[in-house]
Amino acid sequence: MTGNGYNAEEPVDLHGAAPPRAAAAGPPSAVPAERPGPEQLVAVQPPVTADPALWGWRARLRKVTGGLIKPGPGREEARHRQAEVAVRQHLGGGRLVMVANPKGGAQVSTTTLMLTHTFAALRGGPVVAWDNHEARGTLAQRAEVTAPDTHVWHLLGAAERLMAVGTAGDLTHYLRSQPSRAEVLASDTDPARAEQIGPGECGRIWLLLSRYFGLTVMDTGNNVRAGNWQWAAAMADQLVVPITLEPDVAQSAAWMLDHLDTRRPDLVSGAVTVVGPATAAAPPPLRRQMLAYFAARTALVVEVPFDPQLAGGQPIVHARISDASRRAWVGAAAAVADRLAAQRTPRPDQLQPQTGTTPPPAPEGHLPEQPADTGRPPPRAAHASVTELHLRKAT
After folding, report:
1. SS3 for 149?
2. Are residues 258 and 283 in the same domain?
3. Which residues does UniProt assign to the signal peptide (predicted)?
4. 80 and 117, same domain (yes or no)
5. Fewest C-beta in 10 Å: which of 48, 145, 287, 296?
6. Which own/partner pairs from 208-213 qualify as long-range (CB within 8 Å, at least 24 positions apart)?
């Protein structure tokens, strides 16, 4: 019997490969483990350093050749692009950055505003600068927009209503919105007021700000023993230490680090030092000595140049900042962002439900107990920080 009947063999092609044998009948096979996922339908985006140069002679060459020659960015431009990516990275929610140096004239307000402007401009907000002086501070005076004429005590007066039925829009009645999309919360401006902001008031203000702002940058006062200063030191996720290379300013910062080391050694070891311009250049040996001290004492040291827009105590117009200054502050913000991103914080849905009774609230002025010091620095991110490329690293 020929053809395809029973016991008949399939014809053999003498000039080609033999046909494959039919698979044995059986249950349907499982889905292959190597099945492509939907992410393979999206093209992989090149890194920011792959785009053509926008700075210097490389950008001019691309322009004069009509784009026929498109050199990549130089080292400084590539680092700046990476720093911008670092500023935009995910930081978690409700993060508090403490900017502190008890010495007047250490550029604490300038640093607070510039970090807030940089984060808000690159992240698209919402970021708020909080002037946390126990009485009157000068942060709001340095802001470009000084309206409305509200401050922390107005906010505290509305705190109960805002917590009950308030919205993010209601909160803006008490903030000064800047063109960079940053918000500013002013300190007390009433000369007749006798009360001071203490830890209890700080807690209520923070409860409101952290509800609507993922990142708060705090300008602190000069009294490290004041209740609001101590509250900030206990609650901060990140410390930023502004200094100038002048002995009294640097010594004040060093004393503050000694003070914090007794309560928050993790805050000190993970701090970012921002070196601003001094009224007179420090002698080279003294400069090297100061930079080496803070590089060994804190996690990162960033230098920012002189900018007339930031000098003299005048309002800071962010759009008028020089390119060199703007790029340096992006590097400073990237250093802060990398430190915050290295601190893993659980999402609310990942927290375990509370069991048992709730402990009574601590009395006003009492700082919560800090965990025992393990002698280890806070956890670092698994990947290398992009800011390590051009910042002084602690030894």
Report:
1. coil
2. yes
3. none
4. no
5. 296
6. 208/155, 208/159, 208/162, 208/163, 208/166, 208/171, 209/128, 209/130, 209/185, 210/93, 210/94, 210/96, 212/126, 212/168, 212/171, 213/94, 213/126, 213/127, 213/128, 213/183
The pLDDT value given to residue 295: 96
Do residues 81 and 180 share a domain?
A: no
**Could you tell me which of 43, 319, 293, 45 has the C-alpha nearest to residue 182?**
319
Residue 172 covered by a domain: yes
Q: 88, 113, 144 — which closes off a domain?
A: 88
Side-chain half-sphere exposure of 101, counting CA atoms within 13 A: 28
Nearest to 239 by CA among 390, 108, 384: 108
For residue 202, what pLDDT is reported? 95
Give the CA distances from residue 16 to residues 10, 12, 22, 23, in Å, rounded to whole numbers and listed in that order.
14, 9, 18, 21
Rounded-to-integer distance, Cα 251 and Cα 312, Å: 23
Number of structural domains in the chain: 2
The first and second tokens of residue 357, run together, are 């009774």
Cβ burial, residue 314 (10 Å; 0-12/13-18/19+)? exposed
Whether 185 and 155 have beta carbons less than 8 Å apart is answered as yes
Residues 369 and 387: their CA atoms lie apart, in Å, by 33
Give the helix/strand (H/E) hosting 254. Answer: helix 247-261
Q: Are residues 79 and 213 in the same domain?
A: no
Answer whether residue 32 is part of any domain.
no
Query: What CATH code is carried by the domain that includes residue 133?
Result: 3.40.50.300
DSSP 32-82: PTTPPPGGGGSPPPPPGGGSPP-SHHHHHHHHHTTTSS-PPP-HHHHHHHH
Tokens, residue 53? 């140069």
User: 208-266: per-residue pLDDT in tens?
Assistant: 999 999 999 999 989 999 999 999 999 999 999 999 999 999 999 999 999 999 999 99
Beta strands in 210-252 (DSSP E): 215-220, 238-244
Tell me the per-residue pLDDT of 106-147, one tens digit each, with 9 for 90 and over.
999 999 999 999 999 999 878 999 999 887 888 888 899 988
pLDDT beneath 50, residues of the chain:
1-19, 357-395
Structure tokens at 57: 């002679």
- To the nearest 10 degrees (0 to 180), the angle between helices 323-342 and 108-123 is 80
How far is residue 354's CA from residue 293's CA, in Å, rounded to a whole number? 44
